[in-house]
Automatic annotation (TrEMBL):
<feature type="domain" description="Solute-binding protein family 3/N-terminal">
    <location>
        <begin position="34"/>
        <end position="251"/>
    </location>
</feature>
<dbReference type="Pfam" id="PF00497">
    <property type="entry name" value="SBP_bac_3"/>
</dbReference>
<feature type="signal peptide">
    <location>
        <begin position="1"/>
        <end position="25"/>
    </location>
</feature>
<keyword id="KW-0732">Signal</keyword>
<dbReference type="InterPro" id="IPR001638">
    <property type="entry name" value="Solute-binding_3/MltF_N"/>
</dbReference>
<protein>
    <submittedName>
        <fullName>Substrate-binding periplasmic protein</fullName>
    </submittedName>
</protein>
């Protein structure tokens, strides 16, 4: 029977220690990029995670050679993970004054805003927040930045039982609410197409509730040097022509 020498055993033990250390280091360095269903920036299509922000982040991961994976979760779950778990990134997030100190930021990915919409043909004139407060009912999602912003502004006419943007706009299109608010202009067009409605079935009002750029939000435990590399990679992508190609694809 073969009996390994003390020297051979030492090599085997050393190999296992080195292999274990490499695995642990790899796991330690791993980044999880969290996202939610929010077309056309991040969403599932034919079983694949896609969208403008997803494509941009995939380019950054390849450029950096980062040990990172993208994972889609319900919005509240993704937010919890970003706030409570290490080495987490999140796309796509509005960078607001209230959020600025909570995370580190890479971006901007793209400028975006969120408006009230009314059904085409509705004679309502909505030019200020006060005008919107006077309508009977506004459909919105049940939680999130838009809902919180409206509540803080004193809105008491919110129908906020909807989890999905499609439900928000279905209520508006079927005349069950006077106004609807959920997505950016780009997102609203995307959802109307998915619902087989013409993109002009809803009319964007003049009232902008959210006006901010979308960013990658990062948990604060990620080193500043690592965040700087992600920012440099995004800046390089914007000058390469690839960024504009991806942007045009989702503005068609």
């Amino acid at each position: 029977m073969f009996k390994p020498s003390i020297f051979s055993l030492a090599k085997i033990i050393s190999f296992h220690i080195l292999f274990s250390a490499q695995v642990n280091a790899s796991e330690h360095d791993k980044l999880i990029v969290l996202t939610e269903e929010w077309a056309p920036y991040n969403y599932m299509e034919d079983g694949q995670l896609t969208g403008f922000s997803v494509e941009i982040v995939e380019h950054l991961i390849r450029d950096l050679g980062a040990n990172a994976t993208l994972e889609l979760y319900p919005s509240m779950r993704a937010s919890y993970m970003l706030n409570h778990e290490p080495r987490r990134l999140f796309i796509s997030m509005f960078k607001t004054k209230e959020r600025e100190d909570q995370y580190q930021w890479v971006g901007p990915l793209v400028d975006s805003s969120i408006y009230f919409y009314k059904k085409k043909g509705n004679p309502l004139v909505i030019e200020t927040l006060e005008d919107a407060k006077q309508v009977e009912m506004i459909s919105t999602r049940h939680a999130g930045l838009v809902f919180d912003t409206l509540k803080k502004a004193g809105f008491t006419n919110l129908d906020n039982v909807s989890v999905h943007a499609k439900t928000v706009y279905e209520k508006l299109l079927h005349g069950r609410t006077d106004l609807g608010i959920s997505e950016s202009p780009l997102g609203t067009k995307h959802i109307l197409r998915e619902m087989d409605y013409p993109v002009d079935a809803l009319v964007q009002t003049k009232v902008k509730v959210v006006d901010s750029a979308l960013y990658i939000a990062a948990s604060k435990d990620i080193p500043d040097t690592e965040i700087a590399l992600w920012q440099a990679s995004l800046d390089k992508l914007k000058t390469s022509g690839v960024y504009d190609q991806v942007l045009r694809k989702y503005h068609e």
